């Protein structure tokens, strides 16, 4: 039995309430300690995420929307941490429900902020806001919120949502969002990032609220050192990469790290499989063998000489021909996993080949891109990882029910998107890494190579391989965006950040 991937539970708001009651039991000393950790963690995450747009401005104008409870306290303490680090920054605070409503710990947070940066702090009313801000920290409502939003707060949120603000950060949950909230309601804070403090709550992983949640960051405050009952949905943590970050055995050789086969490519889409191969080579594969149309081998071998390149007979249009089947069959006993699909195209003969390969395979498979056809993903009995985007996902379901599909196939499905989900049977994991820097051609091809390599290393654990590969890919993408921004980059540059992603905090 493989250990579960390193992760923490995603809880409902009611489950979170019970968890915090057990953790703190009304002890304000413990609650204050957690609030300080949350504020500091939010500030640190904001600074990191600002790197994607040039870095946190030294003379930043910060707006804090403070409610009466813990979320307001978290936001105020985050602002204090930022202003202590940036002595030329200033903060405006709006008490959304009135300063007199502040609960003791939120008032303590405000008092500490005022004491630390008094000359750079201004308390404002809604109609007295500046024309623009660099950062808005939303701490009006937390998971205790019950809809609807009252009229005063609704006007505040509408006003702030209309302001030009470089980065909008929701503390824990965007204000106005809670379980049962109406998707598309204008009475919600629209965040660029939602910083889930201590616990990821179910509303922020609901795709219905993607437009207000923005990108999810999980800030682990140590709430799950003694974990409650198992949760069906979980969020992956960087600890999932621990096996890759450790020293390798000094007596190991290349065969200990898997032999991944990659089959795909065509004259029409030559780059996709090259990116998959490069990703496999850069993510620790012991051996990599690539099967590609024979006309592509000379150029590809020069680009990636570490791989073994096998030329495959081509169809008249440059795809993989059925007659090359023996090339794979005679070598398959050497492989520990097979990646099928990148750049393969949709020629009928090539799709027939793919189905035949999947039907007879006994080693674990990763199916990507054009191999994600309903009849191909259902063929054979080998363990498999599927890596669809949403359109491909709907195609392989072919109008059927996802749960029934999973029960029948036992496949690990990596559904790529804003918040990538990894599922197998009743288990579901979210990877809160990556972002718009991945919204470019080739990112999925790199992911296929990375997960394929993990599958070759641990062929008996396809779920773990999918989780490790997805987190590694996403964390490398985060570092790429922080180093070079989201726009002026090439997809394969994320491979340069695979190594630092293993050791980043």
- Overall geometry comes to elongated
Rounded to the nearest angstrom, the distance between the terminal CA atoms is: 29 Å
Helix content: 25-40%
> Strand sequence of the main sheet, in spatial order?
8-1-10-19-18-17-16-15-14-11-12-13
Figure out the total of helices. Answer: 18
| Percentage of residues in strands | 15-25%
Which regions are unreliable across 5 or more consecutive residues at pLDDT < 50? none
What's the pLDDT, averaged over the residues? 95
Can you walk through the features of this model?
The chain has 505 residues and is of the alpha/beta class. Helices cover 38% and strands 18% of the residues. The chain is built from 18 helices and 19 strands. The two termini are 29 Å apart. The model has no long low-confidence stretch (mean pLDDT 95).
Set down the secondary structure blueprint.
Blueprint: E1 7-11, H1 13-24, H2 28-50, E2 61-66, H3 70-85, E3 90-95, H4 104-117, E4 121-123, E5 133-139, H5 151-162, E6 165-171, E7 193-197, E8 200-201, H6 202-205, H7 210-213, E9 215-219, E10 233-236, H8 242-245, E11 259-263, H9 270-282, E12 287-293, H10 297-303, E13 308-312, H11 325-329, E14 337-340, H12 348-360, E15 365-367, H13 374-377, E16 384-386, H14 390-397, H15 402-409, E17 412-415, E18 420-424, E19 427-431, H16 443-457, H17 462-484, H18 498-503
Parallel strand pairs: 1-8, 2-3, 2-5, 3-4, 5-6, 6-7, 7-9, 10-19, 11-12, 11-14, 12-13, 14-15, 15-16, 16-17
Antiparallel strand pairs: 1-10, 17-18, 18-19
């Amino acid at each position: 039995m493989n250990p579960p991937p390193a992760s923490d539970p995603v809880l409902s708001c009611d489950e979170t309430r019970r968890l915090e009651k057990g953790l703190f039991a009304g002890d304000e000393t413990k609650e204050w300690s957690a609030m300080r950790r949350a504020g500091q963690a939010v500030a640190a995450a904001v600074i990191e995420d600002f790197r994607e747009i040039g870095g946190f401005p030294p003379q930043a104008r910060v707006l804090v929307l403070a409610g009466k409870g813990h979320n307001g306290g978290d936001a105020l303490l985050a602002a204090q941490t930022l202003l202590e680090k940036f002595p030329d920054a200033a903060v405006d605070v709006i008490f959304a429900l009135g300063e007199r409503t502040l609960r003791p710990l939120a008032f303590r947070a405000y008092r500490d902020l005022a004491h630390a940066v008094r000359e750079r702090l201004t308390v404002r009313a809604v109609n007295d806001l500046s024309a623009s801000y660099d950062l808005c920290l939303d701490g009006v409502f937390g998971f205790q919120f019950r809809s609807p939003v009252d009229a005063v707060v609704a006007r505040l949120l509408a006003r702030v949502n209309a302001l030009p603000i470089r980065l909008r950060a929701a503390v824990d949950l965007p204000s106005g969002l809670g379980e049962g909230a109406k998707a598309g309601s204008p009475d919600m804070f629209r965040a660029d990032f939602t910083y889930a403090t201590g616990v990821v709550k179910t509303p922020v992983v609901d795709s219905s609220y993607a437009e207000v949640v923005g990108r999810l960051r999980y800030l682990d405050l140590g709430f799950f050192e003694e974990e409650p009952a198992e949760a069906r949905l979980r969020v992956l943590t960087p600890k999932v990469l621990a096996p890759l970050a450790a020293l390798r055995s000094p007596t190991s050789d290349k065969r200990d790290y898997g032999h991944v086969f990659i089959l795909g490519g065509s004259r029409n889409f030559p780059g996709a499989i090259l990116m998959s191969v490069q990703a496999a080579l850069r993510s620790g594969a012991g051996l990599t063998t690539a099967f590609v149309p024979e006309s592509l081998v000379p150029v590809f071998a020069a680009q990636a000489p570490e791989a073994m390149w096998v030329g495959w007979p081509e169809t008249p249009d440059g795809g993989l021909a059925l007659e090359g089947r023996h090339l794979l069959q005679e070598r398959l006993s050497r492989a520990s996993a097979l990646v099928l699909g990148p750049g393969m195209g949709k020629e009928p003969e090539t799709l027939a080949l793919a189905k035949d390969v999947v039907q007879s395979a006994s080693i674990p498979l990763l199916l990507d891109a054009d191999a994600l056809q309903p009849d191909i993903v259902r063929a054979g009995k080998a363990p498999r990882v599927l890596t669809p985007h949403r359109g491909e996902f709907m195609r392989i379901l072919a109008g059927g029910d996802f749960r029934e599909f999973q029960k029948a196939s036992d496949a690990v499905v990596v559904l790529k998107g804003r918040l990538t989900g990894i599922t197998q049977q009743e288990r579901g994991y979210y990877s809160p890494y990556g972002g718009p820097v991945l919204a470019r051609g080739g990112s999925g091809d790199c992911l296929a190579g990375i997960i394929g390599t993990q599958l070759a290393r641990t062929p008996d654990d396809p779920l773990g391989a999918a989780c490790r590969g997805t987190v590694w890919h996403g964390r490398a993408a985060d570092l790429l965006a922080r180093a070079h921004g989201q726009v002026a980059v090439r997809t394969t540059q994320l491979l340069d950040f695979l190594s630092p992603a293993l050791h980043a905090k």
